[in-house]
Amino acid sequence: MRPEARLLQVLGTPRWSAEADAAARRLLSGDLDWAYLLDQALRQQVLSLVGRNVTRYRLWQGPHDRAIVPHAWIYAAGYEANRRRNNGLFAEFARVFGALAGAGVRYAVRKGPVLCALVYDDPGIRRMSDLDLLIERDRYPAAAQVLAGLGYRQGVPSSDGLTPYDRPTRAFWSMHLNNALPFRKLSADPDVELFEVDLCFDLFQRRSVGRVDVRRVLDRTVARRICGVDSYALHPLDHLMDLCLHLYKEATSYLSIERGKDLTLQRFLDIAESLRTSAPDVLTRLAGYAAELGAVREVYFALHHTRALYPDAVPADVLADLAPGDLAYLDEYGELDGRTGRWREDFLTRLFNPDRARELAGRSSIPMG
Amino acid sequence: MVETQVRQILAKHSGLGPAALDIDVTESLWDRGMTSMAAVRVLVALEEGFAVEFPDDKLSTGVFSSVTTIVACLRSLTSTAGR
């Protein structure tokens, strides 16, 4: 791994320690490509976390009054901007929770807002994009009406607003995907360019082997304070399952790879931190749950790669017990698109290679127009 | 008449070619190789050809699984439109 990648791994931790401090200062004392580091901090979605640590622990300060992080203010600004942005998102998402509850639409909050509220100790260190909600498919019309009442529309962002999706795109998403086209609302908040809500009807993709009863998942949601208000999070086991399934989908789908959203440190860190803040036996239970739902491949994929980056998060013996027979799929992509290809580069090289999409043998067939 | 027109649209847009003109009415179009994108092209052609719009609850892989299911859906849509 390049030293910049190792440094990002060290700096991208919500829990600072003497070991992390020493490792960071050792790496910072060497020659670094700062443009690459900044670019990667953004691509890996850890700029705000890096900024918090660089600032709070004065990592920019070297010996003999020498600054060892050039332009350190940009990292501090990244953290501060994200903190403000998340506060704007929290306020808007809280309105969505209230409106859904008022309309009697059952939902569970997935990913970002839950991680910010329940897993990370600082609401500014994790970058969020949209609000992901799990609902029952037959409640979609009611949920869509609630969002329309709040000013959301389904459309493609353009310079003069939102352009409605064309018929083929709407048809494709309805017919072949387990989530609705994104609901969006232009924002007057200078820290938030666009509010976006994604309604999802299943934890699995249509082409997945695994299945889960969404009604049962919603039956066992847990009441939590999320975005500063009372809301509902997935049961801890479903939360971990969801993170693993989502990581697998993003890591292997043509659309995510084309957009450079397939591999991010943040996503692996989410799993590592969720495990750290869960009950001690959660990994063993997750393994059993994966077998029950038919999701062993996806869960193993997520945990195997999480361990490659954060070895302490996933014990080797638990991982070994979960391993499916054939591990060749770990370096493949496109299974959920129905067109499987194989990576030439190994995982860690790909993760920090911004041009990895050039390896793809084809393009996504999901229309977004 | 409806079935004939459906078969012509399938032959042109499903990717199955002329085989769609003779395919068994219950045979799976997916098993014969129709792709996700081809199904969308079929949908758009059906909507134009029959002057109907498939509502969201009809946009499923089941509706587009065979000649029979497509014809049944179109009949339900045209009869609804005629009321």
Describe the structure in your own words.
The complex is a heterodimer of chains A (369) and B (83). With 369 residues, chain A is an alpha+beta fold. Chain A is globular, with a radius of gyration of 21 Å. Chain B has 83 residues and is mostly helical. Helices cover 52% and strands 0% of the residues of chain B. Chain B contains three helices and no strands. The longest helix of chain B is centred in the last third of the chain and has 16 residues. The two termini of chain B are 20 Å apart. The mean pLDDT of chain B is 91. Chains A and B meet through α8 of A and α2 of B.
Biggest pleated sheet of chain A:
6 strands, mixed
Class computed from helices, strands and strand pairing of chain B: mainly alpha
Q: Strands across the major sheet of chain A, in which order? A: 1-2-6-5-3-4
Structure summary, number of beta strands of chain B: 0
The fraction of residues in strands of chain A falls at 5-15%
Quaternary state reads heterodimer
Q: What's the tally of helices of chain B?
A: 3
Largest sheet entry of chain B:
none
List keywords for this structure.
heterodimer; A: alpha+beta; 6-stranded mixed β-sheet; two-stranded antiparallel sheet; 11% strand; B: mainly alpha; 3 helices
Which secondary structure elements does this structure contain, and how are they paired or packed?
The complex is a heterodimer of chains A (369) and B (83).
Chain A: H1 3-11, H2 18-28, H3 34-43, H4 47-56, H5 73-102, E1 108-110, H6 112-119, E2 131-134, H7 140-149, E3 153-158, E4 161-164, H8 167-176, E5 183-186, E6 194-200, H9 214-219, E7 222-226, E8 229-233, H10 236-252, H11 254-258, H12 265-276, H13 282-293, H14 296-309, H15 316-322, E9 332-333, E10 341-342, H16 347-351
Parallel strand pairs in A: 2-6
Antiparallel strand pairs in A: 1-2, 3-4, 3-5, 5-6, 7-8, 9-10
Chain B: H1 2-13, H2 36-50, H3 67-82
